[in-house]
Amino acid sequence: MRKILTVLAALASLSLTNCGYNAIQSEDERIKANWSEVVNQYQRRTDLVPNLVNSVKGFAQQEKDVLLGVTNARAKVGSIQATPEVLNDPAAFQKFQAAQGELSSALSRLLVVTENYPQLKSDALFKDLMSQLEGTENRITVARNRYIKAVQDYNVTIRSFPSNLTAMMFGYKEKPNFTVENEKEISTAPKVDFNPAPAPSK
């Protein structure tokens, strides 16, 4: 009896492997891990915003609308729970994308404004914050690209035969991914040129 159970267990294991079940599990876990890294890097950026806003405020209090825009965008990002469940809810994922895109746009507007304040641009604290922000934006790009690739692999697997039958049987569905429009909007890290433009030659 024990031998029969062992054989049946082996056959079941072989069947799950051949039908793509194990591959789906592995790729699903990879997506979750990559998503966690995306969220972590976005959180790093969010954490920098208050100090950045306060730094700019010290030199450019009159830019209230721009500063308020960044603060409000940060608050919207903070109101979204970016749990792994978001990956199974296209509407929630889209909401997450939109909030991050709004924060990216608000930060870009803020950095454009800072060009008008040479003293701010030469401030040591501001320079340090900008260095951290740019580094974080680069990490976001790397993490997001890894997530995109993981989702692409997973979605191909659950659409391919015979793993698509397994996916239907166990209720696995395609994961949402970053849209082309959103990717274009948030893939460019905010940049500030601390080198003044050369004076025109006479």
Automatic annotation (TrEMBL):
A Pfam cross-reference name: LemA
GO cellular component: membrane
Membrane topology of this protein: Single-pass membrane protein
Top-rank taxon, per record: Bacteria
Gene3D superfamilies according to UniProt: LemA-like domain
Signal peptide positions (record): 1-23
Keyword annotations of the record: Membrane, Signal, Transmembrane, Transmembrane helix
Location of the protein in the cell: Membrane
Main subcellular location: membrane
Family (UniProt): Belongs to the LemA family.
PANTHER family according to UniProt: MEMBRANE PROTEIN, PROTEIN LEMA
Protein name stated in the entry: LemA family protein
Organism: Bradyrhizobium cajani
